[in-house]
Specification:
The chain has 432 residues and is mostly beta strands. It has one helix and 33 strands. The protein is globular, with a radius of gyration of 20 Å. The protein starts with 41 loop residues before the first strand and ends with a strand.
């Protein structure tokens, strides 16, 4: 399949009743975007294994065809979606959106989304943006800044919007657009970056702009994905770019507050929201900070800094998890796991991997445990416990090592899903 004509009626197929993605009894839960439905990286699953056999949990299936890249997996109904360059199921090296059967991993379709991202060192290349699925549509943001919607059943491409051309957007670094767009009702919200339209809201069905928000002197989009908060009954979108964090009134697009982060190389982790608190973090020795959102005059929302950037909390691209008022993440891109208090930033413990994990660690959590995937393909099970660090079990992703394992793992319906380049794996972690 090739690209359809740009700017045709977006998802006109919806009117034909062609789309139907339903969760069956076998698949009760979805993971429709980066870090899950609420973008916390914490799955609701319970009754999971407390430890694993030496070889790791039971491998349900292994599948090829994801392609080169670091996009995570989006899961809805009986299907899995991801982005990658030159998948083994394609005859060229371009970027594809690929769809797989959730139960077996078997490829269903792949749809070309544009040219591959080949800038920079070999380890930097490839897709990073995880698709977002909503009501039968898969929304994709390519590294080149092309926003594309596809029929989730067939892969048919609808409208294509170039965030650079349409909104004057650009990245704040050399690694390509990476966010997963936010779907909030009938609104699609994303971050073109730069001052002209730092954040935009579009009608998710026809792509028409609803509002734009300008952040003065913004240096360009980062890698993070927008999260939703609520303060004094007002819905707020929180995001980070190369310039730092900011908040936007969801209804009007009006800028509420900013939190500058100077001299950034890349701002990657997605913010964490708890009540009126916002935790933001950047790598390359910049650190993590806590912001409190406060009702202001005329219905506005202002902010104050609870604690400023703490370099000890720096996190490059593995992400941070919040559980029971404690933050868990790796130290920048080192195989060192940190536990810190959310409200103070004080480090409770800081420990290096004991099972051979190397460099950065992508983390997902469920049932009181951290599932830590190190860059070298080592996966560890760790109790989320402020009392201390202990890697309970571990295993090695088969045939890993050619490129870094940066794609964040996923836990849904008792299954652990892992992507390592072209290969995907599904492990049963239920305590049966």
């Amino acid at each position: 399949m090739g690209l359809s004509k740009p700017f045709q009626a977006l998802f006109s197929i919806l009117g034909k009743g062609a789309l139907c993605l339903c969760c069956t009894a076998a698949f009760a839960t979805d993971w429709p975007t980066f870090r899950g439905s609420n973008r916390t990286g914490v799955a609701p699953d319970t009754n999971l294994l407390e430890s694993w056999p030496e070889e790791g949990p039971k491998l349900v299936w292994r599948s090829a065809g994801a392609g080169r890249g670091y996009a995570s997996l989006a899961i809805a109904g009986d299907r899995i979606y991801t982005l990658g360059d030159g998948p083994s199921t394609a005859s060229d090296k371009d970027e594809y959106l690929s769809c797989f059967d959730r139960a077996t991993g078997a490829p269903i379709w792949h749809e070309k989304t544009g040219e591959a991202w080949n800038n920079g060192k070999d380890d930097w290349q490839g897709s990073r943006s995880t698709p977002t699925i909503a009501e039968g549509i898969v929304y994709v943001l390519t590294p080149h800044g092309k926003l594309i919607g596809c029929d989730a059943n067939t892969g048919t491409v609808g409208k294509i919007i170039d965030l650079r051309a349409a909104f004057g957007g650009d990245k704040g670094d050399a690694w390509g657009y990476s966010e997963s767009v936010l779907i909030d009702g009938d609104r699609l919200v994303c971050t073109p970056g730069k001052p002209q339209a730092t954040m935009v809201a579009l009608n998710r069905l026809n792509g028409e702009p609803l509002w734009t928000c300008s952040v003065p002197d913004d240096r360009g989009a980062g890698h993070a994905s927008i999260v939703i908060s609520e303060v004094d009954g007002k819905k707020i979108y929180v995001q980070t770019t190369a310039s730092g964090a900011f908040a936007v009134d969801a209804e009007t697009g009006k800028l509420q507050w900013t939190f500058p982060i100077e001299k950034t190389t890349a701002v990657i982790p997605t913010p964490i929201v708890k009540g009126d608190l916002v935790y933001v973090v950047a790598g390359y020795k910049r650190g993590g900070a806590l912001i409190q959102q406060i009702p202001g005059p005329g219905g506005s929302i202002t902010s104050k800094t609870v604690f400023p950037l703490n370099k000890e909390l720096a996190n490059k691209h593995g992400g941070v998890i919040l559980m029971d008022d404690h933050l868990y993440g790796c130290a920048d891109d080192q195989p060192i796991i940190i536990c810190a208090e959310l409200e103070t930033g004080n480090v409770v413990w800081k420990e290096r991997s004991t099972v051979g994990g190397q460099k950065s660690a992508a983390i997902v959590a469920a049932d009181g445990h951290l599932y830590i995937q190190y860059q070298n393909g080592t996966v560890a099970l760790v109790k989320a416990d402020p009392a201390g660090f202990r890697e309970i079990s571990s295993f090695q992703i088969p045939d890993s090592g050619d490129r870094p394992c940066w794609a964040h793992p996923v836990i849904v319906d008792g299954m652990l899903y892992i992507r390592d380049g072209d290969n995907m794996f599904c492990y049963d972690i239920r305590n049966n």
